[in-house]
Design a protein that fits this description.
The structure is a single chain. This protein is mostly helical. It has a domain of 224 residues: MetI-like fold (Orthogonal Bundle). The protein contains 16 helices and no strands. The longest helix is centred in the C-terminal third of the chain and has 31 residues. The radius of gyration is 27 Å and the shape is globular. The two termini are 54 Å apart.
Length: 373
């Protein structure tokens, strides 16, 4: 008689995963309720959000004023005064730029946004060419369009630049110029030549030991005293130079950390291949060092972007300066006007800074694919 066939016990491949490991419940258990301490902390944060978020939303949107042309429209309720933003939106975006020439600023905005989007979208080709154009051709075209005086374009003085335009100009010049300067200073600080090393160390330590406000005051008031007779630099150009040199000192220390973190074997391998100093630095050392300290570089860039608001101290009306000036206008002076302006400025700063941090995280994942096993 043939014995009955019994089913084989389920193997590990046939067993269902525990509910706590999959789906939404699995994510909640792993990230929010994995232990007693995490559970208590999660509940406290949720309670804080329930207590703080609804009043903020009520003030900013539900109880806010959306229509009007003066502050009288905002005095009837206790919410945000959005007509102030609507009426001042032109100054917030363009500063005091001539209205008839604002199309030039729009062209600069559009081309810059398209170029950055091209670099951020992984599926688009020719990123090297686009990046080279953004670093070389785009600044030249932007300068011609914004300043005028070329190809029949009327001249627009830099004193009329302001708002978001001035903030982006100062941040872009500071970021683009400080990175290569920081690389040179970091390499100079690690140089075997005593003169180069001492000069690099002195430059870095002097600029890092002085507040940025002092640097801007020096560039605005005292730098013209040291220039030769007949040579004058635009006030905005002096501020841009000060911002670039100041942040280059901080960038140099960040990059020096990446160079020191590189194993000695990388230098020895480059020497074994017959590479000279500049070949090994450009092809082997710097790419690995910059990838190592990419989060710190982006963090420095974000801090630099937020520090652009300090240029208002030397008489420029950047994004924050335009909002502060508008809030002191007698037509808009009120308890909620300034708060609404600061909320709007903070939201703009957050959008730009958060975008930079997210792109940095995406770039880190792409560059670390070769290290995954």
């Amino acid at each position: 008689m043939t014995p009955p066939v019994t089913a084989a016990p389920p193997t590990a491949f046939h067993r269902k995963r525990p509910v706590k490991k999959i789906g939404v419940l699995g994510w909640l258990h792993a990230n929010l309720f994995s232990s007693l301490f995490n559970t208590v902390l999660t509940l406290l944060v949720l309670g804080l959000l329930v207590w703080a978020v609804p009043p903020i939303l009520d003030w900013a949107f539900i109880d806010a004023v959306w229509h009007g042309t003066t502050r009288e429209a905002c005095e009837t309720v206790g919410g945000a005064c959005w007509p102030f933003i609507f009426q001042r939106f032109g100054q917030i975006v363009y500063g005091f730029y001539d209205e008839a020439a604002r199309w030039r600023v729009d062209v600069v905005y559009v081309f810059g946004a398209v170029g950055l989007a091209w670099l951020m979208i992984p599926s688009l080709p020719r990123k090297g060419w686009v990046g080279a154009a953004l670093l070389t051709l785009y600044p030249l075209v932007s300068f011609v369009l914004l300043s005028g005086g070329w190809f029949g374009l009327p001249v627009v003085s830099t004193e009329k630049w302001g708002g978001l335009l001035l903030t982006l100009v100062v941040a872009a010049v500071g970021i683009v110029a400080s990175l290569p300067l920081g690389v040179l200073l970091a390499l100079g600080r690690r140089s075997t030549l005593p003169v180069v090393r001492i000069l690099s160390v002195v430059f870095i330590e002097v600029w890092r030991g002085v507040p940025m406000i002092t640097v801007l005051f020096m560039a605005s008031s005292m730098l013209p005293l040291f220039l030769p007779d007949g040579l004058e630099l635009d006030k905005l150009v002096r501020a841009l130079i000060a911002v670039a040199l100041f942040n280059a000192a901080y960038m140099a220390e960040v990059i020096r950390g990446g160079l020191q973190a590189l194993p000695r074997g990388q230098y020895e391998g480059a020497a074994a291949l017959g590479f000279g100093y500049w070949q090994s630095t450009a092809l082997i050392v710097l790419p690995q060092a910059l990838r190592t300290v990419l989060p710190d570089i982006v963090n420095n860039m974000i801090s630099m972007f937020k520090d652009t608001s300090l240029v208002s101290i030397i008489g420029f009306f950047d994004l924050l300066g335009v909002i502060q000036a508008g809030a002191t206008d007698v037509d808009w002076t009120g308890p909620n006007t300034a708060l609404t302006g600061y909320l709007f400025a903070g939201a703009l700063y957050w959008v730009f800074c958060f975008s930079m941090s997210r792109y940095s995280a995406s770039l880190e994942r792409q560059l670390s694919q070769g290290d995954r096993r």
